[in-house]
C-alpha cells in the first residue's frame, strides 16, 4: 500500500515538472503510438531528426505515465529505489528553475497498458506530429481492456491531442486510416508497402553474404518513394519487412520536416535498430539467430515467422517461441493460431512456457509432426536443450513476451556471449537480478 502511494506521488510530481518544462522550453514533439513497432519506429525517427538538430527520444520503451515525463525531464528510471526517485525529483526541479540547453525536438513513445493511460497523458501533451503504426486485431495488453476496440479508442486519444497545424502520419492499415477523422490536423501523410501511400515502400529484398554454400542473411534493402522521387535504403544486421514499415514512418516524419529524401535515406541506412528486434546474431555451430526477444504479440509473431519462412537456409528453420502475455480471454485461440502458421513456416518448433503449449497444440493440429516439436517450461531449460541440438546452417527465430526472458536462450547459444551486454535486451542490473 505504501509503495503504491509513493508511486502515485512520484507520478504526480514528475508529471507536473514535465508540464512546466514543456511550457518553459517549448520543444516540438513527435508522439508515436500503435500496437506494433512503436519503439522501433521511435528510434528510426530519432535517427532521421537527430541529423538536423538537438533531439531526445524515449529511452527503450519509456511510454507510460512514468516513462513519458521521465523522457521530457531527461531522467532515468529509478525502479524501486526511493532515494534515486528523490534525486530525480530534485533534478527535475532544477530543470524547471535553472535555464539550460534543452532539445529542440522530443520523440516520445506513448503506450496504453490500461484504460485511460493515453487519455491522461493527452490532457497535457500537445504533439506537433503524431505517428500511428499498425494496429493488431488482438493487441498486447488487451486483457486490461473490454475489447480490442477499446484499445483502438484509447490510442485515438493521442490523435485528438495533435495540434491543429500539426501533421498526422498514419500507416495504410485500414484500421489505422480510420483515425484521420478524429484529428483536427491540417496535414496528413500515409506510409506503407501500398501503392496508394504518400510515402511508398517497394522492392523489399533480403541480402546475403558469405561464400557459396555458407551464405547467411546480413540485412535488407528496399525503396522509398514520395511524389515521384525514389531512394534506396539498406539496413544491415536485422530482418523483416517490418523494418521497412518503421523506416517509411520515419521517412514521413522527415518529409514533414522538409528534410530531402536523399538525406533521409542516408540516415536510415546508417540506422541500427534496438536490440531484440529481428537482430541477426551469430550462433554456435555455424548457426544464425534471429533475435526478436524484446516482446511478443500475435501480429508480431506472424510477421517474424514470415521473415523466417522467406529465408534461404542451408540447415533447418527453427522457431523458438515463448508465451505471449496479456492477451486475456484471447490467449488460447491466438496461441493456437500461431501454431497453425508455424506448421507451414518452419521445420522445428520449440515452445517455452505454459501458454505456448497451445502453440504446440495448434502446430500438431496443422500436421507438424510431433517429433518436430519440443516443449519447455522456462527459457533456461530450453537454452540447455538448444545448445545440444543446434547444427551448422540452422536459422533460429527466438521470440516471446518480455516476462518469459527469451534473451536467456540467445545468450546460451550465441557464438560470442561476451557481447551480450551490447547485443541483447534486458542486460541492465535490475533485469539481470530478476
UniProtKB/TrEMBL annotation:
Indicate what this protein is called per its UniProt record.
UDP-N-acetylmuramoyl-tripeptide--D-alanyl-D-alanine ligase
The entry lists its GO molecular-function terms as: acid-amino acid ligase activity; ATP binding
Organism for this UniProt entry: Candidatus Taylorbacteria bacterium RIFCSPHIGHO2_01_FULL_46_22b
> What is this organism's lineage?
Bacteria, Candidatus Tayloriibacteriota
Domain Mur ligase C-terminal, chain residue ranges per copy: 276-401
Q: What InterPro entries has UniProt attached to this entry?
A: Mur-like_cat_sf, Mur_ligase_C, Mur_ligase_C_dom_sf, Mur_ligase_cen, MurCDEF_CellWall_CoF430Synth
Superkingdom as given in the UniProt entry? Bacteria
Q: Where is the Mur ligase central domain?
A: 32-253
UniProt keywords, alphabetically:
ATP-binding, Ligase, Nucleotide-binding
**Keyword rRNA-binding attached:** no
Amino acid at each position: 500500500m505504501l509503495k503504491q502511494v509513493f508511486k502515485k506521488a512520484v507520478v504526480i510530481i514528475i508529471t507536473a515538472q514535465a508540464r512546466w518544462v514543456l511550457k518553459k522550453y517549448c520543444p516540438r514533439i513527435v508522439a508515436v503510438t500503435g500496437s506494433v513497432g512503436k519503439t522501433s519506429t521511435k528510434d528510426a525517427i530519432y535517427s532521421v531528426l537527430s541529423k538536423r538538430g538537438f533531439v531526445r527520444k524515449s529511452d527503450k520503451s519509456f511510454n507510460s505515465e512514468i516513462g513519458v515525463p521521465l523522457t521530457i525531464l531527461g531522467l532515468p528510471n529509478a525502479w524501486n529505489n526511493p532515494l534515486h526517485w528523490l534525486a530525480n525529483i530534485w533534478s527535475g526541479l532544477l530543470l524547471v528553475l535553472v535555464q539550460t540547453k534543452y532539445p529542440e525536438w522530443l520523440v516520445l513513445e506513448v503506450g496504453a497498458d490500461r484504460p485511460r493511460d493515453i487519455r491522461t497523458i493527452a490532457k497535457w501533451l500537445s504533439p506537433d506530429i503524431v505517428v500511428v503504426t499498425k494496429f493488431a486485431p488482438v493487441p498486447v495488453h488487451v486483457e486490461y481492456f473490454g475489447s480490442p476496440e477499446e484499445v483502438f479508442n484509447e490510442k485515438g486519444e493521442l490523435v485528438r491531442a495533435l495540434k491543429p497545424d500539426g501533421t498526422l502520419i498514419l500507416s495504410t492499415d485500414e484500421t489505422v486510416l480510420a483515425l484521420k477523422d478524429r484529428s483536427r490536423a491540417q496535414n496528413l501523410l500515409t506510409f506503407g508497402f501500398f501503392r496508394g501511400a504518400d510515402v511508398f515502400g517497394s522492392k523489399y529484398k533480403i541480402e546475403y553474404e558469405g561464400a557459396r554454400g555458407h551464405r547467411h542473411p546480413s540485412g535488407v534493402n528496399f525503396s522509398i518513394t514520395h511524389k515521384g522521387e525514389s531512394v534506396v535504403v539498406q539496413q544491415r544486421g536485422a530482418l523483416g519487412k517490418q523494418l521497412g514499415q518503421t523506416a517509411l514512418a520515419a521517412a514521413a516524419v522527415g518529409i514533414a520536416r522538409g528534410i530531402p529524401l536523399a538525406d533521409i535515406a542516408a540516415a536510415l541506412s546508417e540506422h541500427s535498430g534496438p536490440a531484440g528486434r529481428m537482430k541477426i546474431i551469430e550462433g554456435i555451430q555455424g548457426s544464425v539467430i534471429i533475435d526478436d526477444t524484446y516482446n511478443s504479440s500475435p501480429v508480431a509473431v506472424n510477421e517474424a515467422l514470415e521473415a523466417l519462412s522467406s529465408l534461404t537456409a542451408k540447415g533447418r528453420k527453427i522457431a523458438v517461441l515463448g508465451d505471449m502475455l496479456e492477451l486475456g480471454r484471447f490467449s488460447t485461440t491466438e496461441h493456437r493460431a500461431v501454431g497453425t502458421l508455424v506448421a507451414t513456416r518452419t521445420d522445428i518448433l520449440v515452445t517455452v512456457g505454459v501458454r505456448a503449449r497451445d502453440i504446440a497444440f495448434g502446430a500438431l493440429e496443422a500436421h507438424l509432426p510431433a517429433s518436430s516439436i519440443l516443449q519447455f517450461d522456462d527459457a533456461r531449460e530450453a537454452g540447455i536443450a538448444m545448445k545440444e541440438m543446434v547444427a551448422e546452417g540452422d536459422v533460429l527465430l527466438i521470440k516471446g513476451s518480455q516476462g518469459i526472458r527469451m534473451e536467456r536462450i540467445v545468450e546460451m547459444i550465441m557464438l560470442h556471449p561476451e557481447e551480450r551486454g551490447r547485443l541483447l535486451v534486458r542486460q541492465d542490473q535490475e533485469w539481470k537480478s530478476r
